Amino acid sequence: MEIKIINKSSNPLPFYATEQAAGMDLYVWTAHPITLQPLGRTLVKTGLYMEIPKGYEAQVRPRSGLALKKGITLLNAPGTIDADYRGEIGILVVNLSNEAVTLKNGERIAQMVIAKHEIIKWKEVKILEESSRGSGGFGSTGVKDKYT
């Protein structure tokens, strides 16, 4: 699949680092380092603009190494970039560590996965088909206590 992209940054285009990687790294694009205080959040620019085909989305996800080493993650993970969006790709970043973290131009900040999705039509009904799980949620499929 080909996706049209404009790169206004000085960073490389996103690419797959290994043959079987699902995600591609996105990079910070900034003229000046960005310092995030503990619990601080900001919108990080990438300089990228895309034309995603209809029926697909780009999912923006945290990088596990950045989360582990620096406590940096994304607030709306995964973030969705819709096929009809043509603006700059921005990454909503939060610092969950106890220390200030500085982000520099060219630093890997998130990863992006291109995924197919369906467009659905609602069918409003009065009754749903039964299932073995029923309405159990929020941990209901875990190990049961032998006394309950």
Automatic annotation (TrEMBL):
Domain dUTPase-like: 12-142
Superkingdom: Eukaryota
Entry keyword Metal-binding: yes
Pfam name, any one: dUTPase
E.C. numbers: 3.6.1.23
Function: Involved in nucleotide metabolism via production of dUMP, the immediate precursor of thymidine nucleotides, and decreases the intracellular concentration of dUTP so that uracil cannot be incorporated into DNA.
Family statement: Belongs to the dUTPase family.
Name of the molecule in the record: Deoxyuridine 5'-triphosphate nucleotidohydrolase
Source organism per UniProt: Elysia marginata
Origin organism lineage: Eukaryota, Metazoa, Spiralia, Lophotrochozoa, Mollusca
